[in-house]
Design goal:
This protein is an alpha+beta fold. Helix content is 49%, strand content 11%. Strands 1, 2, 3, 7, 10 and 14 form a 6-stranded mixed sheet that branches. The protein has a 3-stranded antiparallel sheet with strand order 4-15-13. Strand 5 and strand 6 (309-310) form a beta hairpin. Helix 5 (96-108) packs antiparallel against helix 13 (236-246), helix 6 (110-129) packs across helix 7 (144-161) and helix 9 (172-181) packs across helix 11 (196-222). The longest helix has 27 residues, at 196-222.
């Protein structure tokens, strides 16, 4: 099924020369947009568009939002900005859209982002350093994806919610990934009787989160009794969210749990596979691994207690590492970006998209369009290939990652032999996080998370990847349109701890 959808989208992009196409699906008009010119127009008109219909039809079903909480969201016409929408009569304490969004943005920007990213890096380094089963002699990993996946989930959950969640719910990691493996059935809104295992997996996560919430809510309502336990058990972010929702009568315990399940999925479902692919591509290529280790070593501050600490801003500004990060998102992320004109029709070039129609931008098709993306200075690099240098221009070259787009970087490298990182002029071509005012607010943390994961892995370990029949592992296209793709097959590997 996924391959048919991919073929359909590619047929639209190539056959119709990137023009918007209207499809009739289940009595609904869907306008598929793959041309950069028209995608840019969508982003520029993003204030006139909304993704709420996607939230209503898909997201709430995925995470089990109960009807009373869903209706509470729908009745909030005050908007998601600090100033309520004109004519809205929603009580300031009941502005669930704005208040929930505000706390999330506070976590993911400015000082909140710095603290969040630092907690994640510390957690991951400590977890990986503490693995006593990995020594300086080679040992076998049944699947390197699961090895990376589980530790990233735990480090992220601890950074968001503190130590208490995983201590209270020791099976949450396994339960979450079981739920994630079945989420496409929920996104397609199949009924419970058709896919009972998907609902069972989701319900188990919701019950676990509800049980973890209960003592925190009791403590918030009754007043703190043990400040030290409070600090260890939860984060300010978690308590602020629960405190806010506790003042909203229509946000039931199940509604709160569904919000937190959605947060865990948003924080892990895309960034974890992306981080894995970056690790995989690095360790399977010895020459690339050497280049990466050189850049990472330049950013290493200390290995206090054997746990590496990095200069994160410097790490995230290295041209090669940034290019690899961008290429992972181009090559391995497949997102179907859904928008809808809320109040009036909009124009895309000479065409009119009617009010309430669905607009879909399939990132995978745009990211792999061979008429848009350069194939290297000698036209030898396919868009169907992971190329770590795709976003780099070396001295003496006029290369650009986009066909017929010339970019003059504003910053010149200190070293005359260092390549330039090219990230401008990509609007409409590169959209792993969506675009316009609805672009994913977690993208800044995701970059730090993904590059920090790579830095820690290449510093602590040597890894030899075993690929099936000397073939490169392919992504599983069953997740097409849902975000970062996961590997199709198990990936055995050998691992050993590097000498300090």
């Amino acid at each position: 099924m996924a391959l048919n959808i991919i073929g359909l989208n590619r047929h639209i992009a190539y056959q119709y020369r990137d023009l918007p196409i209207r499809l009739r699906v289940f009595m609904t008009n869907i306008y598929v947009v793959t041309g950069p010119e028209y995608i840019n127009s969508i982003w520029k008109q993003s204030s006139l568009l909304q993704s709420e219909i996607y939230r209503q039809l898909v997201v709430w079903n995925m995470f089990g939002m109960p009807k009373e909480a869903a209706n509470f969201y729908l009745s909030d016409d005050s908007g998601s900005t600090s100033t309520p929408a004109p004519n809205s009569t929603v009580d300031p304490t009941q502005r669930v859209k704005y208040l929930t969004h505000y706390l999330l943005v506070k976590l993911l920007t400015g000082p909140g982002l710095n603290g969040f990213a630092e907690r994640f890096a510390t957690n991951l380094a400590e977890q990986l350093t503490a693995k006593e089963e990995i020594v300086t002699q080679w040992s076998d990993l049944p699947d390197i994806f699961i090895f990376v996946r589980d530790d990233l989930f735990k480090a992220t959950a601890r950074a968001i919610h503190g130590e208490g969640q995983l201590k209270f719910s020791p099976t949450l990691c396994a339960d979450f990934w079981e739920f994630d493996s079945r989420i496409s059935s929920l996104a397609k809104r199949f009924p419970r009787w058709m896919v009972p295992s998907a609902y069972i997996a989701r319900d188990k996560c919701l019950e676990t989160i509800k049980a973890w919430h209960r003592p925190i809510l009791n403590r918030l309502l009754d007043g703190p009794t043990d400040k030290q336990f409070e600090k260890i058990d939860t984060t300010e972010f978690t308590e602020s969210r629960l405190n806010m929702w506790s003042k909203m009568p229509l946000m039931s315990p199940l509604g709160m749990a569904s919000e937190d399940l959605g947060l865990l999925w948003g924080a892990n479902a895309n960034s974890v596979p992306s981080a894995f692919w970056l690790v995989y591509e690095t360790f399977r290529d010895p020459s690339l691994l050497a280049r990466v280790r050189k850049d990472v070593g330049d950013c290493l501050i200390t290995r206090s207690s054997a746990s590496p600490i990095f200069d994160t801003p410097r790490l995230c500004s290295k041209p090669l590492l940034q290019s690899m990060y961008m290429e992972v998102l181009r090559y391995y992320v497949s997102t179907s970006i859904i928008r809808s004109p809320e109040h009036a029709s909009i124009k895309l070039g000479p065409w009119i998209i009617p009010r309430k129609a669905l607009i879909m931008v399939p990132s995978f098709v745009v990211h792999r369009n061979q008429t848009l993306w350069s194939t290297g200075t000698d036209a030898s690099i396919s868009v169907e290939t992971f190329w770590p240098d795709r976003f780099l221009r070396y001295p003496g070259s006029s290369y650009s990652p986009i066909v017929d787009k010339t970019e003059t970087p504003s910053l010149q490298p200190k070293d005359a032999d260092e390549p330039l990182f090219l990230s401008k002029n990509l609007t409409g071509y590169f959209m792993p996080y969506g675009g316009g005012h609805s672009e994913c607010p977690g993208r800044h943390f995701a970059k730090q998370e993904i590059l920090t994961t790579l830095a820690i892995m290449v510093t602590l370990f040597d890894i030899e990847v075993s690929e099936p029949g000397d073939r490169k592992v392919e992504p599983n296209m069953d997740g097409f349109g849902m975000g970062a793709l996961k590997p199709k097959d198990r990936i055995p590997a050998r691992i050993r701890k590097r000498a300090t």
